[in-house]
Amino acid sequence: MKRTFRGGIVFPSALQNQKETAQASSFMTIFPKQLHLSLNSALKPTVSVGDTVLIGDRLAADPDGKFPPLHCGISGTVTAIEQSSVITVISDGSNTFGTLLPPLSKTASREALLQRMYDAGLVGMGGAGFPTYRKYQAPTIRHLLINACECEPYLAADVRLSIEHSDTLAEGIRFLAAAAGISSREAVFCTESPTAAARLSGMGIRTILLQGRYPQGSERQLLAAVFGREIPEDRFPTDCGMIVSNVATAVAMAEAAHGLPLTHRSVTVSGMVAHPVNLFAPIGTPFSDLIEQADPLLSRRRCRYIAGGPMTGTQITSLTSGLPKTCGGVTVLPALQITKGPCIRCGACVRVCPAGLMPFRIEAAHLAGEKDNTATACISCGCCSYVCPAKRNLAAHIGEARQEMRQRP
Ligand code: SF4
Ligand code: SF4
User: Fold this and answer.
1) Are residues 202 and 298 both part of a single domain?
2) How far does residue 269's CA lie from ligand 2's centre (Å)?
3) Ligand 1 binding pocket includes 359 (Cβ within 6 Å)
4) Which of 197, 253, 257, 350 is deepest in the core (most CB within 10 A)?
């Protein structure tokens, strides 16, 4: 029997089929006419309006040297910097590369690999966006899990990346293991796809095939499935000697070792579309450019666009905003028309909660202005909302309760 964790959801076969269709779609590289690159609060622009930039050039950096820099994925001209937080670059159409980083050897030291993670702008590409070099700085790592458990409906880029670029991925896994200070034999590729497992196994990488169940790709659920052990809520996997990295991060590591900063990422566009697609797109590509590649079946008025999957993604409020480093999918869904009813105490939310919580009780406490400390263990997977027959938006309320609790002294 394949390994898994407690709780969670197995999605209906229609959704699984749509995912498999997307997994079969080969990557296409797109060349947008412009980029809109958002900066977080740590990053400050290192370019000015009017500057000419090439692929791989730095656009923004952290003056304190803690958050990795942001690089450009097209060649062209910087035409706007809005409130020091969004940089717009218009393409010159030539896609010319600038001066890249010097390549690293296969035997590069741990220090050199950590420095390269920083210089190449690597952050966790599975959604968290935590600086990769900081995760790998942890002193006593024993295990590295490479996460290709893309368990949300519709999304397929991670599995496709594992199948289509298994050689680069295997190389990236070996570099990541060296950066963690462990042998590549301690690195394990985790997936729900038998094809991806066979590819990586053929490259000499240890693989574990897990049961297709949501949220298998969540860091804590993956560790529970692989090691049969749960990480305490107040600790990080690195505190317990483990690192989980997404496959896109591993591929970016291999490219960084060859001198390419992180300028592009893999992304699936799926949902209510005629042609689900997997794209390689420059960071900062407008969401509208991504969506038009998949030919949406609904007009803009009748649908909503989600950055990520339908379970944990966030609604895209402006289609001109740019693809961030952390976004591996865009999902087109029908506009929501939900009428929620009262809780009927059916217990479905309790049965699926992978964190072992009582979602209906936490929601009721939150709505009554009371506090339920167990909310802090919620991983925001959305399973409770998905199964609730009364259509209660449990995950959103529990997320609010958790935020409030974190903000309290
Ligand atoms: S309470 Fe949190 S962890 Fe449990 S199912 Fe709901 S969203 Fe997921
Ligand atoms: S699934 Fe919905 S209706 Fe059932 S117990 Fe939970 S909140 Fe109540």
Assistant:
1) no
2) 32
3) yes
4) 253
